[in-house]
Amino acid sequence: MPDDVKTNNIDALKDLIQKRDDVAVIGLVASLHPSDIAKLFSSLEEEEKIYVFGLLDPEVASNVLLEVDDPTREKLIASISKAELTEIVDEMATDDATDVIAELPHEEAKTVLEGIDWKESAEVQKLLKYPEDTAGGIMQTEMVMIKEDATVQETIDEVRKKSEEIPNIHCVFVVDDDTKLVGTVPLEKLILAKPHLPIKDLMNSKSVKVGVDTDQEEVARIFQKYDVVTVPVVDGSEKLLGRITIDDVMDVIEEEIFEDFYRMASLSTDERVLDSASRSFRLRFPWLLINLATAFVAASVVKVFENTIQAVVTLAVFMPIVAGMGGNAATQTITVVVRGLALGELELKYAKKVLVKEVIVGFANGALNGVVAAIVAYLMGVNYMIGLLLFLAMIANLVIAGFSGTVIPFILKWYKADPALSATVFVTTCTDVGGFLSFLGLAAIFLKYGMLG
Amino acid sequence: MPDDVKTNNIDALKDLIQKRDDVAVIGLVASLHPSDIAKLFSSLEEEEKIYVFGLLDPEVASNVLLEVDDPTREKLIASISKAELTEIVDEMATDDATDVIAELPHEEAKTVLEGIDWKESAEVQKLLKYPEDTAGGIMQTEMVMIKEDATVQETIDEVRKKSEEIPNIHCVFVVDDDTKLVGTVPLEKLILAKPHLPIKDLMNSKSVKVGVDTDQEEVARIFQKYDVVTVPVVDGSEKLLGRITIDDVMDVIEEEIFEDFYRMASLSTDERVLDSASRSFRLRFPWLLINLATAFVAASVVKVFENTIQAVVTLAVFMPIVAGMGGNAATQTITVVVRGLALGELELKYAKKVLVKEVIVGFANGALNGVVAAIVAYLMGVNYMIGLLLFLAMIANLVIAGFSGTVIPFILKWYKADPALSATVFVTTCTDVGGFLSFLGLAAIFLKYGMLG
């Protein structure tokens, strides 16, 4: 298995790089899968990567370029000449070439587009027009397309012609004279059919397809739902424009889930664990600043009750518990709701049902945790009325958590904002304010009526 | 596109179900993809689902059963006789049949295993022995296996024989006399080859394979790395046991990411947004109780400083800010670290580098947010020394956040526990305790030296 590669070869490789032993470096790297070369790169210094990259032949280099992380890709591209870059891009499938060219400065993009094969260049220029996160943005134009009046043998000949340049053919798309999609034929049917049969007889005319404007998340859901490995992309008049293969969709799925995950944790989606400290600082600071603002909102609620705390200072000991538990409960609710929305399990019509459920769950968890908190507080030897306060405030705040944790993601969804964003900014403010207000507010009332010593 | 299905048909369907119009219900449902039927089910009452499910033929029913959510699956299985269940399971691929049978009570599982085709039964019994989250647990035994001395034509004949019962063949696995895997041949090569050629000439003998004990997360990573759609599974002596197809892997990827996501939010991984209130309550309560315990740990720190707060009650207003910001910063760090570990980007050798980085980021964010907090506090008209306290405590606590947010996930990983679990339980305790201790502890020192009024 290629997995021993990473540990064994690095020292040897670094040594050969040091000696600038081109032949030996190529010898060592040539046997590796491009993914493994990309993985090796993560253990090399910048100059070392650039040196090794410069030795790779264009085909391998193009695959490596697609596998490395974004910052490395930028540096590698910057390290080579436009002519070399053109050669490398020329090796790529149209979807990958489009992604790379889209990131280049205008002048350089133009040079590369003029340098690569004119047919690919034309395709890439078309693809560049589609928004990145739609079916058009992730499709490739490489595919096997066949007229509906062709025979099985003619189709096989077409597959033969294309198989050199297109990996993962999986299936053939059948079109009419206007290049409108009329059906698909998986390769296994093609193998088993008699050569003289019309291809029309084999095709599945009800197979799945997606519109070019379909959101990539929706595309991913279609792949999962129908268990397919490739899907044709059509325009508004059913004309076949390209295809999407499952490897691109896997990246989309991972990207989309992590996006939610990151947003809920107040992170920029493009931060990575091995980023530099200054980059991480820059990316995180704005989010923390927003959190700071909401923390001050909560603090100003506490400020209103300074006199209450002055009278019974033990309140300050227990007030963070209620606010904190509200935050935890709200995070549970938001996470479940955001996941449901992301998977498409949760539609708007269920909003009321989920809201009622979350409020009930909040009440029940508030009551039970409230009882436990009250007992523990009592055992700590404080006034038993503080236990009662904890119990009541916990119920109030966990109901607030369930309510705001459901309603706010739905409102954001309604306004086409990202529901995952709600976590920190809005909902925690609700539960912090709710926690302090319910606990200290009730305490003030208790005090007023002489119930708190 | 099959997507209009969900909105249009439900009312009509419910109406027909009401009338118990079997023929019309089947007529309406028969044209739909099993995934769409499963989706329709989410809008039906329990009895309605059971009624419709009872009308489906075994093949469709088996596909629907695999697409519905877990609680619905349990109810549907409970609603039919053992004989019907046997018929339905008989239609499934071995990997799916294994998943369904694994969930059945012992007696029922036995009956079904005795009822289905004896060959499938034997395969399923073998598969039942592999742990659920390994290659063995997600593989199927349906595949096209061919001896290495076969010709292309013989291989095509074998594909023909198997293609009836096996969807998504994608490629053929070549084995020696001991059924040891020697190579793979993708279908497109088979189409294009001359019939009399030995299959050995076409095969790729260095293609990817996985060991039967490989963790499913690792399997998913291999699919992503090598952009393949099916992978053979072998035992310790390279004998071919089965294959994993990409559709199973997509589920794994989604499952694994959501698992981290859920664990970080203190949720059980099997909770769903449309679960009942009592189920959600049961699943969430234990997690909240753990959080309550950690909240009391933090509260007991505050309790130590009751006299300090009594002396300067404004401290109670600002102390939650420092603890809360620590929690937010720690969540950022943990999320980045957990993602890095999950994707395999973050290896142990980078631990020190990441730790240093996170401490620096914590320091920088602490200093900058601390300055802002100090200024805002000053503008709120409190003693400027409280601003200084906020500044110092913020730095201390964000450094604690960066440190514990990195170290704790690594320690958990080291002890083979889930790094995502660290979020709530350990790290928030660190930042709560750290926040209160640094802010109130410094305040106590300031007070002692007469620096706080």
Explained architecture:
- The structure is a homodimer of 453-residue chains.
- By secondary structure, chain A is mainly α.
- Chain A has 3 domains: 5-133, MgtE N-terminal fold, CATH 1.25.60; 144-247, CBS-domain; 288-448, Tetracycline Repressor, domain 2, CATH 1.10.357.20.
- Chain A is built from 21 helices and 6 strands.
- The first copy, chain A, has helices spanning 5-18, 22-30, 34-41, 46-55, 58-67, 70-79, 82-90, 94-102, 106-115, 118-127, 135-138, 152-163, 187-192, 216-226, 246-264, 277-304, 306-311, 314-343, 351-379, 384-414, 422-448; strands at 144-147, 171-175, 181-186, 210-211, 230-234, 240-245.
- In chain A, strands 1-2-3 form a 3-stranded mixed beta sheet. In chain A, strands 4-5-6 form a 3-stranded mixed beta sheet.
- In chain A, α7 packs across α9 (106-115), α18 packs parallel to α20 (384-414) and α20 runs antiparallel to α21.
- The longest helix of chain A is centred in the C-terminal third of the chain and has 31 residues, at 384-414.
- Chain A starts with a helix and ends in a 5-residue tail after the last helix.
- Mean pLDDT of chain A is 89; it is low at 1-6.
